[in-house]
Structure formats: C-alpha cells, structure tokens
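dumping this here before i forget
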Amino acid sequence: MKVVFGFKFKWILRVVFIGLVLSALFVAWLFFGPGWRRLTPSMSDWDLVEDSNGNIISAKTDFSISDPGFFVEFRFIAKGVKAFDIVINGRDLAPFYKPEPTLGENDSTFSPISGYNAFSPIISKDIFFKLLNKGSNSIEIKFSSADQVKRSEIAKFRLEGYSQALNFETINYSAQFKTADSLRFAGDRFIINVNGPLVPDEPKIESTLKWIRKNNQVEEFDMGIEARGSTSIDFSQVSYSLKFRNNVDFSAIIENSLPSTNWILYAPYLDLSLIRNVLAYDLSRSFGHYSSRSYPVEVIINGNYMGLFYLMEKIDHKSLKLDFTRQINPGYNQPCLPFLAEIGNVDTKDSVVSHSLGWAIVHGPPRTELRNSGYYEKVASLLENMEMCAKDTGCLLVDKLDFLSFSDFIILQELMKNVDAYRLSTFFHMRCESSDSKIYAGPIWDFNLSCAVTNDRRGSDIAGWIFSSGEDVDDFWTNLFKHKDFTAFFNKRYATLRRNHLSDSAVLNKVDSLVSMVSIHEKNHRSKYKWPRDNFWPYAKLPRNYDEEIQRLKKFLIDRLRWMDSQILR
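structure:
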C-alpha cells in the first residue's frame, strides 16, 4: 500500500511541477511576450494643471524605459479626448489634432506626425527613437480650455509600446535604438542636426551637416532636409532629400559629379546586399550612359545612428545638362525639345503631362516659366509620336529613338530582372545636341526590387522577360521588337556587351568591388538593422547572412546571363 501511495504521490508531484512550469511560462509570456505594454503610469500619478473652471490644460509625468529598442511600435490612447498636444522630453511632437475614432466607439488614438498617415493608430518606432531616452523620460499632454477636458475624460490616457516577439514580422528587421558614440567608424559619416524632433516628409526643414571623412577631414554645410519616397516613406530606414543653400561640388569625392544644390541620401533598407542600386548605376555608366553617381556614408541624425546611406546625385535636367533657355520663348518652334520625363508615381503638384504611356512627370524649370510656351503639350506630343511609331512597323523608328540607349536600358532592366521596370521610375529625355532630335531612354533608377529579391511578377525566376510580361507594362516595349532594325541592333549590342562589360568575370568583379566598398560599414549597419530571421518583405526566400545574400546575387546574375544568351545569341 505504501508503494502504491508513493508511486501516486510522485506522479502528483510531477503533475504539480509541470503545472507550475506551464503557469510560469504563461506569466512570462504575459509580461515578456508579444503585446502592447503600458509605458506611462496611471493618471492618478500625473501632475494635473487646471484652469479656473476646472478644465484640464496640462498633465505631466515621468516614466522610464530601459531600452526603447525592446519595442517595435508605439501608440497613444485616450478615451473620449479628441484634441491634445504631446510633448516628450521637452520636444513638441505635434500641434493640436482631432483624430478619427480607431479603438472603439469611445476611444481614439493620436497619430500626430505631419507628413505621415494621420489616421494610423500606430506611430513609427523611428519617430520615438528620435525622442525617447534610455532610462528617464518625461511626457506632457496639453489640452485646450475651449475643449473643456475634465479629469474623468483623461483617466485612461496612456502611452503604449508593442514588445518584440519571435513571430511578429516587423521585429525581424526592426531598427534598434543606437547612439553614435557606441560605434566605431572606418568610413565617412554625416552628422546631421535638425531643428525639430524628426525629419518630416515635407516640407524641408533647416539643418546642419558635418561631413567627417575617413581621414578625419571635416566640412560643414547648412541645408534643408526632408524624407522622400512613396512606399518607402513608412520603412524603418527612409531616404532623404537634401537642398544646400548654394551649389556644392563633391567631384573630388564623387568622381565626375556636377555641382548642385539638390542631393539624395538613399537608404538601402529593402536590399540586404546593400548594393543593388549602385551595381545597376555602375553598369549603366560602364555602358557609356549617365546614371546617378554615389558615395557610401553612415548617417547620424540628432545623435541617433541611422545606418548606411548613399549620397547620390538627384536626377534632374541639370544632371543631364539640358538647356531650356530657348524653350522658354513661346515662339520656339524647332523639332528638338529638351525634356526629361518620368513614368511612375505622379503627385498632382508636379509638372505632369498625359499621353498614351500614362502620366509623365516632367523635370525642368518651374512650371510658371513654361506654362505659356506650350512646352508640356509639346512633350506629350513627342511621347505620343514615339509610341505611335513603335506600333507602326512601317515607321522609321531609328528617326525617333536612340537605339543604343533603348537597347542598353532594356538589357540592364532584364539582366537584373527589375520588377518595377518600364512602369515606375522610367525616364526618357531629349538632348538636342547638334542636330540630334531623338528620344533617349534613361537615366535608369530604382533597382532595389531586382535580382530575385521578390516573387512578384516572377522576379525570382531565371527565365522570362519583364518587358513582355503583360503585367502593367505598356505594349510599347514589346512593339519595339516588331521592328527588325531595332531587334538586329539590340542583339548585336548585347553580344558586344557580353564580350566586355557584361562578361561573367566583369560582372562578378563589379559585385566584389562594391561589396568591398560597403564592408567597412556593414557591421555598424547591422547593429542598427538586425538581420531578419523569419519573414521580411519583399524577399521570396530569406538568406541566412550577408555572405549568402551576395552569393545568391552573383548566381542569379550569371544564371540570368546564361538564359539571355540562349534567347539572344542563338
């Protein structure tokens, strides 16, 4: 009997032990697992300031965060309060704002950043990384007396952070809070200080730039800065547009670059290789065409390390040396018209024209200078005539298009299988040099979704042409190959490039050269943006580390060249 009892007692102990372990794990999950965590104390611990009528006009408190990097997103929650102003660590986050209800009938969230999605309940972690301190922080909420906010109405006001989780997709490649003084720099770095807690989408805000070269030489500039991009504006690392007060000449650093007031800080956030765009631009220049020149720098904004960027020339009429002086004259009536047009995402405030390829953004002098000259109508007509000629196999296409630039443009888009090709960031221009009145393709732009990054539009398949995929790609590109003279030129040009700039060894050497260039920055960059472990859009298949990513990039390029050989050189 004792034995049986002892046997049962042992099993009871085991069951109790397992239950305690599971309970502890559940409690740990509740406290340390994924989910929203309250960061500010209950309202009873806030210092409240009331006006003579008993309306709350200010609420202040302190709170502590051991590491903001533990959180991937933040949000404000207030019950019944529809207008307030947030001040964190003495910096005003936004003016009064009336949000739409998003958390239930009586709740609302505050998403106050001008230039960001005003009605999103989530506030970007990067905004808070610029505001929050490790350790002690202060927050003040300001209300308007006119809104007559009472104590009971702000009882549930709180700031929350979403904690990291193994299966929470955004944590896999989230930005970690990183100060510059915790890093060692082997390359150039930009130290930017802005007049405000964050860099807005627009307009540009005043800032100072201190460029510290790897030889410790220092240059300082005054400039305006704003975030740039369409989809990329919501990424953890965003690109920036810079506008200097005067033309700056960086040709001693960026070879053959032109003096300009407008520059770009490009963020390679989506590209784990960090080199896809630069690779495309370098190859295009080796073909003999203009493309944006660049230089790698690490960027610190208001003391926070932001990762590796590329200082790049901005594509505009000045970078192509297009002269509009005569075209501003309404009486100008020559067959050649200098222009730079872009097919892609169109903002209605840009100078735009409509034609059968879709809307085109025209880059050039201010619209007011050209409005009365019929300039935009003439550009639309030129683009329309170009497409109509492509449709007509009896039309002398060689009189309309520069075969060399169009061939090289297509070859490069197809080699790297850029899934955005032909429909976004696609440029055309006319130079009007001597008697040349042909339309040129390029400059190329935006290759971050290339070389098997994504399965979209079969981008990871070795076989298949993007230009004839039929997925939002205009028939214009397929129509080009219905002209025998263009097809013959294209095939011959590809064969020539395969013997030099696109030989296997030339392409692989170019990749190795760029990897060597960014290698001194990659360690710091990864301390900010951890290597993704599970899912990371847009990658179809996630490489395990940087070396694997580079090997996959190389393999894709060589395999793609082999496939193109089989289609063109047979």
